Amino acid sequence: MLYNLLRLFLCEPFIESAALVSPGPLGGAARPRGARWGGGGAMAAAGPERPRSAALALLGPAPGAPSCPHGPALLFVKTNQGEEEGRRFYACSACRDRKDCNFFQWEDEKVSETRLAAREEYNRNHQPFFTHRQNVDRYKNFVLLPLSKRRFCQECQQLLLPAEWEKHSDHQFLCDITNAQLKSPSQLLYPLENKKTNAQYLFADRSCQFLLNLLIDLGFRRVLSVGTPRLHEMIQSKASQEEEFNVRSLLLDIDFRYSQFYTEDEFCHYNMFNHHFFGGEAAREICRKFLCEGNGERVIMVTDPPFGGLVEALASSFKKLMAMWRETEKEDHDNREMPMFWIFPYFFESRILDFFPSFSMMDYQVDYDNHALYKHGKTGRRQSPVRIFTNLTPSMIVLPEEEGYRFCTVCQRYVSSGNQHCEICNSCTSKDGRPWKHCVLCKKCVKPSWFHCNNCNCCTLPKHSCEKTDIGCFVCGKAGHKRSACPSLSRPRTACQPDKKKGQKTRKRVKMGICKRLAMKYAIFSKRKVKNKKKMT
User: Fold this and answer.
1) Is residue 19 a contact partner of residue 34, using CB atoms and an 8 Å limit?
2) What is the DSSP string of 60-82?
3) Is 498 helix (H, G, I), strand (E, B) or coil?
4) What is the residue-averaged pLDDT of the chain?
5) CB 458 within 8 Å of CB 452
6) Residue 483 reports pLDDT greater than 90
7) Which residue segment(s) compose the domain that 140 sits in?
8) Are residues 242 and 302 in the same domain?
9) Cα dihedral 236, 241, 242, 243 sign
10) At what angle do helices 2-11 and 497-536 cross, to 10 degrees?
């Protein structure tokens, strides 16, 4: 027992013991766990409260970053409260759940050749069995088959050729796959509903048709569909059925299953969290050519990312796609942004505006087929919170009046029926579709269920705790700025080294003190145990 206690405190990092650290992949280093992700899509700390909290902040893509099966990893920094310098590490860009991808590596860690070889083999083994080109050839052979020989394996999510039936004999599969089903793969494939990675909550027909009609009315003829397979397949379906339909679409998505149904010019395997094209430079060139506005065809990007994803990582990738568009030969692209629809919940508005100040939020409620809550027609707090953020002029976005939207002549934009214009704020202030009320003390409109608390000096829910604390900088504790803008972090790295060494010595002394106390407690416990045995005898 004493050996295990000593091992726990001597071998595991202090404070970051088993509560904050979990084993890394392939016998690698320990990985921070239970800390807070910075920015949008915050991940709450797991388990009981720690004696010292830690924050994780995204630093973004780094040159020469190691890779996992989802492409180059992102660089994060883990900072304990009160510390000026955190420790940097690489983690998977796409998966925030270790069950999906457990890649982890400290930035200053020396990785052995054995681990590098094992990692490369691991990445190779987790790549799709067929390449995109092979899937295209398989599709061509599949459509030539008679209807009775067209099968789709539901367990493997794969189109089956007759020679492969025996291998899948014990699987469930669909028979008689029609051409209409092949043109609507999002209804044939099982949605990947992991909200942190794929989050394939597919547009309902109402929202999808509205988006397509809106794009056509605005004059766009090329749609870069980033994570919007339902919109892409609607465009592809109409293009194959109607000769006069002249809208084209390119789907960028991390779900490689769509390569079974689309050619290289229609689909690129893409990770929107690190701007990684799995097809390499060839896929990047396909995207670059698509963004080149030939014959006056205007391009717009429509994206529907996972709501649990980091806004910082998404914004970084979207800016790089905009840069690809700007690099085309058009002279007027230099000082402009590529037109964009970013579909995201309204409560991320402030985070999106931090990275794209030119964006504005529309009142249109986007609904989904396979989401229990994000449905059209619900009222009150049950309405869909998903909105359209765009850098287009708000007055250009015409919302359907038959669904209750109206045009506000003062705000010069369409708003929902419950979004009343506030004369004091001089704006239609509601975000969730309900009429908001103006608070004179807060000098702004708030939700109808909120009231002004004199103790907190702000509007909040009726049932709340008035134990308000001043939230300051995570590093120095002072108010007025956040960790990323802390003046203490601007000091050179070398200046922090003595303090770091001093901190290491302090932690070592604390560890030894704890071990001594544990040893004493164990000795006292053992003596008492011996005395109790003697009394019993």
Assistant:
1) yes
2) EE-TT--EETTEEPEEEEEEETT
3) helix
4) 79
5) yes
6) no
7) 129-177
8) yes
9) positive
10) 170
DSSP secondary structure string, 149-202? G-EEETTTTEEE-GGGTGGGTTS-EEES--HHHHT-HHHHSPP---TTTT---P
What one-character DSSP code corresponds to residue 44?
P
Cα–Cα distance, 471 to 389 (Å, whole number): 29
- The predicted-structure confidence for 45-101, as pLDDT tens digits, reads as follows 333 333 445 677 888 888 889 999 999 999 998 887 766 678 899 999 988 777 888
Q: Which two tokens stand for residue 278?
A: 């799995």
Cα gap 145→161, rounded to integer Å = 9
Assigned domain for 80 exists:
yes
Beta strands at 173-175 and 158-160: parallel, antiparallel or unpaired: unpaired
DSSP 8-class letter at 461? -
Does residue 350 form part of some domain?
A: yes
Quick check: helix, strand or coil at residue 385?
coil
Is residue 133 domain-shared with residue 107, that is, in the same domain? no
Among 128, 101, 129, 108, residue whose Cα is nearest residue 26 = 101
- C-alpha 116/C-alpha 398 separation (Å) is 54
Look at the chain and report how many structural domains it folds into: 3
Our CA dihedral for 225, 72, 336, 348, rounded to 10 degrees, sits at 70
In the numeric block, the tokens 């769509």 are attached to: 258
The answer to pTM > 0.85 is: no
Mark which of 177, 210, 244 sits at the end of a domain: 177
- The pLDDT-based confidence of 7 (bands split at 50, 70, 90) is very low
Please report the DSSP string for 401-451 in residue order. GGGT-EEETTTTEEE-TT-PEETTTTEE--SSSSPPEEETTTTEEE-TT-E
Choosing from 398, 420, 435, the residue where a domain stops is 398
Query: Within this chain, do residues 89 and 146 fall inside the same structural domain, yes or no?
Result: no
The reply to whether 93 and 139 lie within a common domain is: no
* 425 in any annotated domain: no
The verdict on 349 and 258 lying in the same domain is yes
> Domain check: are 319 and 336 in the same one?
yes
Do 93 and 230 have their domain in common? no
| Residue 369: its H or E element | none
| Phi and psi, residue 313, nearest 5° | -65, -40
What is the rounded average pLDDT of the residues 149-161? 93
For residue 350, CA distances in Å to 346, 361, 486, 522 come to 9, 10, 20, 54
Residue at 521 is within a domain: no
* Rounded CA separation 257/250 (Å): 15
Q: How many helices (H) and strands (E) does the chain have?
A: 11, 28
Same-domain pairing of 161 and 83: no
Q: Is the dihedral of CA 241, 223, 311, 436 positive or negative?
A: negative
